[in-house]
Amino acid sequence: MPARTVVPALFLLGLPVALGAPWALASEPPDAGPDDALLSALGCGGCHEGLPAPDAARAAAPALGPGAPPLSGDFVFEYLGDPVSRRPEVAPSRMPDFQLSEGERVALARFLGEGNPGPALSAAVGRNPGSDAGVGRALFGALGCAGCHTHADAPEPPGTAPSLAGAADRLRPRWVRGWLDEPGPVRPAHLGGARMPDFRLTEAELDVVTSALTGADGRGGEADPAVPGWMSDGVPEVRAARAERLLETRYACRGCHVVAGRGGAVGPPLDGVAERLLPDFVARMIADPAAARPGSAMPRQPMPPREAEILAAYLLSLDGPWRGPSSETPGRVIPSLGGRAVATTSAADGSVLYATWCAACHGPGGGGDGWNADALTVPPTVHSDPAVLSPRPDDVLYDGIHGGGWVLGRSPLMPAFGEFLTPEQIDALVAQLRTLCECEAPAWSRDGGGG
Ligand code: HEC
Ligand code: HEC
Ligand code: HEC
Ligand code: HEC
């Protein structure tokens, strides 16, 4: 990219802030507003759909790898730990801080660096023997480095960052501002290690970026969103009791989310969610995740509209502050669940489907020992145990996967997948369960009209 694209961004960033008249330059071409210029310079669109193309960031970020000026492994290892500006002329473009672990830095340094490791990297390699160049290459793709840097041998970026199209209808400006200032995990379980890096934005940049995404600068001056009528229907205590009963007897929300202090971590924690999300979006997400968030990894739990509102009102009443899942959540390194997986699992491949949508709770081999299992009050069924599955006809297994645990009179923590997966995919999962248990359905069910 020509350097030309960088100059207006620079100019826009410095000057209007100094004049106290942000972003109102008459000379700016109408199609690239100043917000767009800053977003392009920062490169947000290199990872997120729905934002301006990251042209200016791509022009500013040096090419890496074969054919590019060589970097030593030690330099890459140190630099990734504290990516300071080396080329002030490319500002406001910059290398963001991914807050990488030592092992991740070792792997990336071995993938990107040339020559023999110097003393710093050698010592770190000794502590992280598994972090080889192959892992570094996979990380380069998973983390979205190629959103800004060209690299002759980079894998396809997996595209796990959430789309930010329509962010203004979903996210609270105040939350966005605070979180961009100090990003942490939101939905780690299905991101395969991807994370939002810290751009170390200045206050002025936070104003612009938050406004570009949400229409307000997030300093707290914006009007509170309209309160939907259903939020104030009836007596709050009665509504809360009704919502709790739905969660305990009917819906799988606590299988995947923390609600009122307990539950799984497949989706973001919901306590304090009023601080993060707009009320209307919470209700839409529960009623129909695929419509509220195209490509969403949340399977719709079928329910009448009234119950979606009761649950939404309850969630919005749960006190904040909202806190993301711990970055220690093991789901962070599970590459399978969600995002891109939605697209790639359209095929009815039972083992892929199981790894993607079931293993978090039931375990990769069906041992009932998924990383999310400990958070559940009812242990996930052990699918590898023939004593458990051989008495069950195939159509019972089908119904449980389709309608959720409660249709079988079992724990509602088992989600309903019938509106998320196709009948062919559920058939493939039933076959996969038979593979895991190395057992068959009872003879009577196979002979008769049962299956
Ligand atoms: C290297 C890839 C990458 C870049 C570049 C990037 N992001 Fe992100 N961003 C992510 C990932 C991954 C997430 C999801 C984090 C999670 O859910 O834990 C995310 C999440 C977000 C969210 C929260 C969305 C939600 O629904 O919770 C916002 C807001 C956001 N990014 C804004 C930005 C802005 C503004 C920029 C540019 C300054 C930017 N991002 C640049 C990867 C990136
Ligand atoms: C949002 C855009 C963006 C993303 C995403 C990004 N970088 Fe960078 N990176 C830059 C920019 C811009 C520079 C140059 C900064 C400077 O010199 O001031 C840079 C510099 C670097 C450098 C120093 C190279 C040199 O010659 O000085 C390394 C190494 C690097 N990045 C590695 C990575 C890795 C590894 C990832 C993924 C984990 C990554 N980058 C993701 C924008 C980005
Ligand atoms: C199988 C796991 C699963 C089940 C069951 C589930 N969710 Fe989700 N949920 C997710 C995932 C994954 C996301 C993040 C999806 C995304 O951003 O695309 C999510 C997102 C959400 C969000 C948006 C949160 C945010 O911070 O962006 C809300 C609200 C929500 N779920 C509520 C519910 C409620 C209420 C139920 C029960 C009726 C439920 N979920 C059942 C997995 C699940
Ligand atoms: C959020 C955690 C969670 C996820 C994700 C999940 N399950 Fe379950 N599942 C459970 C729990 C908990 C039970 C135990 C219900 C009980 O024993 O009362 C269960 C029970 C079942 C049963 C009932 C077995 C019986 O006793 O008849 C089947 C079948 C099943 N799961 C299949 C699946 C499949 C297939 C997937 C993936 C598409 C899946 N589950 C995803 C938590 C989960």
How would you explain this protein's 3D organization?
This protein is globular. It is 42% helix and 1% strand. Among the domains are: 229-317, Orthogonal Bundle (Cytochrome Bc1 Complex, Chain D, domain 2); 335-447, Orthogonal Bundle (Cytochrome Bc1 Complex, Chain D, domain 2), CATH 1.10.760. It has a two-stranded antiparallel sheet. It is mainly alpha-helical. Bound molecules: heme C (4 copies). Residues 42-44, 46-48, 143-144, 147, 160-162, 164, 176, 180, 185-188, 191, 194-197, 199, 209, 213 line the site of one heme C. Residues 162, 187, 190, 251-253, 255-257, 266-268, 270, 273, 276-277, 282, 285-286, 293, 296-299, 301, 311, 338, 415 line the site of one heme C.
Biggest pleated-sheet summary:
2 strands, antiparallel
CATH architecture of one domain: Orthogonal Bundle
Q: Could you tell me which ligands this complex binds, including any ions or cofactors?
A: heme C
Task: Report the end-to-end length measured between terminal Cα atoms.
Answer: 61 Å
Question: Which features does this protein show?
Answer:
mainly alpha, about 40% helix, Cytochrome Bc1 Complex, Chain D, domain 2, disordered N terminus, binds heme C, about 450 residues, two-stranded antiparallel ribbon
Provide a brief overview of the structure.
This protein is mostly helical.
Lay out the secondary structure:
Blueprint (H helix, E strand, L loop, with lengths): L5 H14 L14 H9 L12 H6 L12 H9 L20 H11 L6 H9 L5 H10 L30 H9 L21 H12 L21 H14 L3 H4 L1 E2 L2 E2 L9 H4 L2 H9 L1 H4 L12 H13 L22 H5 L5 H8 L1 H4 L23 H4 L4 H10 L19 H15 L5 H5 L4
Antiparallel strand pairs: 1-2
Helix pairs in contact: 1-2, 2-9, 4-5, 4-6, 5-6, 5-7, 8-9, 10-15, 13-15, 17-21, 20-21
One heme C (HEC) binds next to helix 8 and helix 9.
